[in-house]
Structure formats: C-alpha cells, structure tokens
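Prompt: I keep going back and forth on a fold encoding question. Comparing notes only helps if you start from a blank page. Show me how you would write down a chain together with its backbone fold. Please set it down just below, with no commentary around it:
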Amino acid sequence: MSALTSIPVMGFFLVVANVCGAGMIVPQVLRLHRTGDASGVSAGWTGVGIGLNAWWAVYAVAQQLWGLLPVSVVALLLYGAMAAQLVVIDRPRSVTGVNAAVVGLGLGLAATAVPPALALLAGGWSSLGLALGLAYAVQFLPALAAVLSASSRSGVSIQTWRMALVEASVWLVYGLQLDDVALIIGGTGGALAASAIVVLLSSDGRPRFTLLGPSMRTAR
C-alpha cells in the first residue's frame, strides 16, 4: 500500500478537504457582513454553489462517499447565507425594481437543477457523478468571469479562493486514489479556476481588464 493510499493519509486529506471546502465560504461571508461591499462577487456562482452542493450531498449518500457529505451540507448552508447577504446588499441599488442578485442566483440555480437530474434519469448514479464532476470543473467560472470583468474587486475575499484551491487540489488527489472520474474532473477544473482567481486578486495595482478592454482603476 502506497503512502497516499494509507488510511491515515487519506483520512488527513479528507479532513483538509472538508475544512477548506466548507470553510472557504466563511471569509467571503464575513467580508460581506463587515463591509457590505459585494464588488466582484458573483451571485451566479453563489446560485451554482447552492445547486451543486445539494446534488453532491445526494450523490454522497447514494454512493456512500461519506468523505463528501459533510463538506456538501455545510457548504450548502454557507452558500445560502451568502445568497441572503447578496440580495440584501443589492436591494438599495435596484432602481428598476429588479434585484440583480436575485436574478443571478436564479440563473445559477437553474443551470444546476436540470442537467444533473437528466443525467440521473438517463444513466443512473454513475452518470450523475460524472455530470457533477463536469459541473464542479466549471463551478467557479461565473466567479472568475465576475473577477475578470469587475471594475472593482474590493468585495472579493482572496482567502476564500486560496482555500478553494486547496480543496479542489485535495479532491483531485482523492479522486485519483479512488479512480473516481467525477472527482478527478471536478478537482482539476476547480483548481485551475481557483488558481486564476487567486492570481487576479493578487495583482492589485495592476491594470484591470473589463469586457470592453483594459481599465487602470484599482481595487482596494
């Protein structure tokens, strides 16, 4: 038995993944509570997080992947808390009567509700696991898009994305040891997106790039 597949080492990996996976949202929730600033924070990513973690909890129970269950449930609750914060923060800015955070959350939830259900109906639990792995691989893309296009990133917690990078990397290793395709795909995609966000948030004082081109405005 290799060192990586030993029970104590794999158990340690699961602890790290669960702590980072559930805890990654905490710095962002605390930042939103402290500052009331949601600049650069994606409501769509939050909606996707709620939907996917609900599905991961179902998948974990069905497949008895108990290492996945705690992080899925706790993350689901924390994403819900962040969703409520975003709605409240955006309310005063809703001059048209449309809360942009509610719209983003709805789109994120819609994007994660139907495809996994169709995968489960079409191919059973293995298909659902693969669909979730593919979805986790792109889960952070709305957050990455928001960070890329935002004129200010002052609302985004870099600690959240550092922890997301650790979590995704650990799930990748865990998936490799279990030969679980869903975890391998998800861990790889999640790690790449989180890495990009960390790099962008670490570049304060450098030119920002919006959808219309470069901007010299910096975020604190």
